[in-house]
Amino acid sequence: MADWNALEALLRQQVTGERLAHTYRVLEFARRLGRIHGADEARVAVAALMHDYAKPLSPEALLREAERLRLAIHPVERAEPHLLHGPVAAGLLAEQGLVTDREVLQAIATHTTGRAGMSLLEKVLFVADYAEPGRRFPGAEAVRAAAEEDLDRALLQGLDNSLVYLVGRGWLIHPASVEARNWLLQRRHGPG
Ligand SMILES: [Fe+2]
Ligand SMILES: [Fe+2]
Q1: How many whole angstroms from 190 Cα to the centroid of ligand 1?
Q2: For residue 115, is pLDDT > 50?
Q3: Which of 12, 14, 31, 146 has the fewest CB atoms within 10 Å, measured from its CB?
Q4: Cα 90 to the center of its chain, rounded Å
């Protein structure tokens, strides 16, 4: 894995302004959640630092890169290419040998949609990204507060809020988010 300074320098060439400020808020919040919930500190930091590495790419560029990297592209991602910024970031970082840790790459890849079977690291990054202190939308504060006590409850609230938001606007929903929610509900309330 490339060292921290090299990753940070690379990120700063790509990500600037408010998006960079968001990244550092995610980094700080993810580190706190990681400490509380016992996630690996180094992995949390690299995943948070690089999670939006590909966010500045245009929809066309995201699709082009996803195809070049031979990623599996879901029809919902083809219609809403911004959903690919996590998978494309993970693909680019892996391709360039900058991040080799599979858990970190997985967390970067799933930070927007979530997925069934999310690891602790994936949960920490998803919730930190959703509810970092700069997030002002309705529900963010509640998720932020829940995150320190019960990470799964915070994740479930974040997924619920996102799905309600998407339904309210008549927008497409990535099935991975529905699968993540079903998985969490069944683990929390199901028979074991
Ligand atoms: Fe993102
Ligand atoms: Fe983000």
Answers
A1: 31
A2: yes
A3: 12
A4: 11
What is d(CA 53, CA 14) in angstroms, rounded to the nearest whole number?
A: 7
Q: Is the pLDDT of residue 1 over 90?
A: no
Residues 109, 140: Cα–Cα separation, whole Å: 22
**pLDDT score of 188 more than 90:** no
Q: What is the pLDDT of residue 190?
A: 63
Question: For the chain, how many structural domains are there in total?
Answer: 1
User: Residue 122: which CATH number?
Assistant: 1.10.3210.10
Q: Is the distance from CB of 175 to CB of 112 less than 8 angstroms?
A: no
Residue with more model confidence, 114 or 189: 114
Neighbours of ion ligand 1 (CB under 5 A): 52
Q: How far is the CA of 52 from the centre of ligand 1 (A)?
A: 5
- Residue 15 domain boundaries: 4-189
Ligand nearest to the backbone CA of 87: 1
Q: What is the mean pLDDT of residues 160-182?
A: 98
